[in-house]
Amino acid sequence: MSATAGMEARAHEGGGAPADRGAPRRRGRARALALAALLVVASARLVTAQCPDGTPPPCGPRAATPGPNSVAVLALRSVTPDTALAYLSEGLASEITTSLSAVARLEVRSPGVVRSVQRSADADPRAVGRRLNVRYVVEGDYQRGGDRIRIAVRLVTVATGTQRWGNAWTRSTTDLLSVQEEIAREVASNIAGQLLPAERAALRSGTSNPGAWDRFLRGDYALRQRDLAEALTRYGDAVALDPSFVRAHARIAYVYGLLLDRDQEMNGLPAESLLARGMRAADQALAMDARSSDAWMARAMLAEARDPLTLAGSREGFARAVALDPRNEEAWHQYGSALAYLGQDSAAFAAWKRALELDPGRPQTLGEVARLHFFHRHVPETVAICRDSVVAAYTSGECPLALLATGDTASALAAVDAMDRTHGHLHPDLRVRIAGGAIDPSGPWARQRLQDPQHSCSQIAHDRGPLWLSLGQPDSAVAVLERCDPRGPKVWFFLRSPVWDPVRATPRFQRLWNQTRPPEAEVR
Fold first, then answer.
1. Domain for residue 143, yes or no?
2. CB 124, CB 86: distance < 8 Å
3. Which CATH number belongs to the domain containing residue 107 in this structure?
4. Is the pTM of this model over 0.90?
């Protein structure tokens, strides 16, 4: 029995979710979010059952009354179309949120969850505030005239719609740092009362250089657009203008960590150079501020590339990052991935659960949750998440195969389409497998994929090896991994996929499994 056929049988036993192609995308997202919120319970075979809010059973109703000092900062609206300043809309909101989060007396919603709700809810700020269950929202707009920009911001009480505070500024487009800091200071004091000296100091942005702050916002915007080269350039500009800008150094290290994790090149530099530059940036940030959560997160990501055989220092770095900033959803996401590589699935699910509490609907995190469910042969749980095409785009094959296992070929093909739109490359092997045909090994795409020398060992375990299996050449699938070096936990993680089941019992595969499996892994 093939791996897909075996999964199909298990899916029918478990009652795979029916096709729902006509349902609105919002309903599909809601189902995925509901599953994510309860993923610890849904995976009871892996983790101890607990309530959606993380407390032990019995589960009570969630509090409907927002906290007295709860606030969400909404993305600013542009009064007129102006793509040149698009980076300010979410950038200013994110920076104000970051500053407010440093005041312990405030309960601040994360930028990710605010973006998610603001994009799907009514345009009325009060409706967004009710969805976010906060007492206050910060909303505003901006309009440029020449090299000047006018920004108007208001603090609104959600229950009554009354304006508690508001102000407007007209400044140079490159001199908005003082405006952002004043907004954060006024919002904090109008909610929490008189601020302590330490709280006022915590509201500062980390640089006194307006130009460096502007380049930092532009870097964040490029990062959200997945343009890593542009992000690296902008963060580098910020550091050049202010060498003491810790957050910019940490972001540079983080981008290098992403490049290495995704096996991407940058200006033709070898991986060793990317690692050295990333570590230098992380160490510079930590030398200036040892409590930088982002710097610890970036260093932990780089540690995975530095020591692929053991991932030494990675888990500890992520633990430090989330301890320093429990609201850092990206650190929780990356922490979950590192734990999954090490076979600590219970802890991985718990870390991803925390990331999704901070940013519900986060497609990267939901994609990782779906992937690990797929590796556990939990087809219904995988499919329930993969109905969301945005999430499916981040699983690189697991969603189409899980959907195919239920017999839903249309949704499986739609998932491949989503992957192609997001990542900009085609997956003809998946299309052929879904259609039930055979892949032509002499075709240009197959030849290129099979001979590409720049794949890391983990990419070979996830991509090239399974392609050889699809071609009906299991010996070549195993051989390409036997020739690969270094092999470590990341390789083992992808060897857990059902696509490797046709060779799982062979002695050669078992040797690879035992060589790469982390000693602390829950899976044997």
1. yes
2. no
3. 3.40.50.10070
4. no
